[in-house]
Design a protein that fits this description.
The protein contains 16 helices and ten strands. The chain is α/β, with parallel strands linked by helices. The strands form two sheets. Strands 6-5-7-1-8-9-2-10 form an eight-stranded mixed β-sheet, sandwiched between helices. The protein has a two-stranded antiparallel sheet with strand order 3-4. β8 and β9 form a beta hairpin.
Length: about 425
């Protein structure tokens, strides 16, 4: 008896076969990442799927002779590198592939050739792609009230662009209003769903705790919501698997691959049940070795940065929080689970949590600056303890904040208009 097929994959089936043929026309070292994306098609976000389609459309816009000319230098370089005698996977972008390429004396030349081909294909893609109007976007970063942000240094990282404002009525109250809504004021999820072209991944809520998910009206499923605290069972189990890793590179590769392939479904919180894209996103985040497994604020920053890279949400709300002090005689450098390796009680670290969050909040805005989609963005970094915010906005926002103070209602109305027009 055959298992039922995924409807989305059935719909894509004719394209998948044609795409495989296109990929097979490319040089060997260009194939792994493309074949991997095909294999993970159901876990790619719409932006990633569209980018993949666009790239292969660009490849197919070359005649066979043009493609041969474009890729000839890379094919010759692969012969010099003797790639076909490596343990080289065409199916996925493995760590073994990366190691083999990095060891080659031709590695630098190979990278330049890959970039040259990608640039040429991207240029073709832009020529044949339909021009879509740029969509307005919003980034809200929240430093909650329990983080004692220093009023004298709070915005020192931001001063190159934007202005500081006070939010009358409370900065954190404003952020709650934006997410939840109020009488006659729809929350951000409802605002987005008025747009018929809205995708669930157009709104991301990333939280150190669980407040944002609690504020989201239950009637609206149009949000990608991730909570560091809600992911605790998964984090604990993942850390346990990671800490079985021997101090050997080959064994580490095997264990990382095993963790990537394991079915983690039982450890995900109920709100992520059935959400294959978000589940895969979290596992990829934990495997990237960036501290997201053990530091809540690192999780918020990296998840926000990766969400923008992979999904390009129209609205991203990231809320930092309190972390515990690292415990003595333990090692966070090798991702030890601090709760399990030490009987010393957890102790909050408000001062250093505030410092971490203030720096990482700015990193989120810097990450957005890498992508042209965020050129028309409003960014608000809100400090609950200061009842103030730093706002970066294009002139088109049309908000006069020369007095240095705004009511929460007025700021809400301006942002609602910004997103919906």
């Amino acid at each position: 008896m055959t298992s039922p097929q995924n409807p989305a994959r059935v719909k894509e089936a004719p394209n998948l076969a044609a795409w495989r043929e296109t990929i097979a026309r490319l040089p060997l070292t260009l194939r792994p990442i493309l074949n991997q994306q095909l294999g993970e098609w159901d876990t790619l976000f719409p932006f990633e799927q569209n980018k993949f389609r666009g790239f292969l459309d660009g490849v197919n816009s070359f005649t066979p002779l043009e493609l041969d000319v474009l890729t000839e230098r890379l094919r010759k370089l692969e012969l010099q590198m003797d790639v076909r005698h490596w343990k080289f996977s065409e199916a996925s972008n493995t760590m073994e592939n990366a190691a083999e390429l990095a060891r080659s004396e031709y590695y630098r030349q190979w990278r330049l050739e890959i970039q040259r081909i990608n640039d040429a294909v991207d240029a073709r893609t832009l020529q044949i792609a339909s021009k879509e109007p740029q969509r307005k976007r919003l980034i809200v970063v929240i430093l909650p009230r329990q983080l004692p942000v220093d009023a004298h240094t709070a915005w020192e990282h931001w001063k190159a662009r934007g202005d500081g404002i006070r939010i009358a009525g409370g900065a954190e109250e404003f952020s709650d209003l934006l997410v939840k809504g109020g009488p006659g004021q729809p929350g951000i999820a409802e605002i987005l769903t008025r747009d018929a072209s809205c995708d669930p991944e157009d709104l991301w809520l990333i939280d150190s705790g669980a407040r944002l998910n609690m504020l989201l009206p239950s009637a609206f499923s149009h949000a990608a919501s991730l909570s560091y605290s809600a992911l605790k069972p998964l984090r604990d189990s993942f850390l346990a698997g990671l800490n079985t890793m021997p101090k050997s590179i080959s064994s580490a590769v095997e264990i990382m691959a095993s963790l990537a392939k394991k079915d983690w479904t039982p450890w995900f919180p109920p709100e992520l049940a059935g959400q294959k894209r978000l589940q895969r996103f979290v596992i990829d985040l934990f495997l990237s070795g960036n501290g997201a497994l053990i530091f809540s604020n690192a999780f918020v920053e990296w998840a926000a940065s990766e969400a923008m890279r992979r999904a390009r949400p129209r609205v991203l709300v990231a809320r930092f929080g309190m972390r515990s002090k690292p415990k003595p005689f333990t090692s966070i450098a090798i991702f030890e689970n601090q709760e399990k390796v030490s009987t010393v009680p957890d102790v909050d670290d408000p001062a250093n949590s505030a410092i971490d969050a203030a720096i990482l909040a700015h990193y989120i805005w810097l990450a957005a600056g890498r992508y042209p989609e965020y050129e028309q963005s409003v960014c608000l970094c809100i400090s609950g303890s200061l009842d103030s915010a730093w706002m970066i906005a294009p002139p088109e926002l049309g908000l006069d904040h020369s007095t240095g103070s705004l009511s929460g209602d007025r700021l809400y109305d301006t942002i609602e208009k910004w997103i919906t027009t």
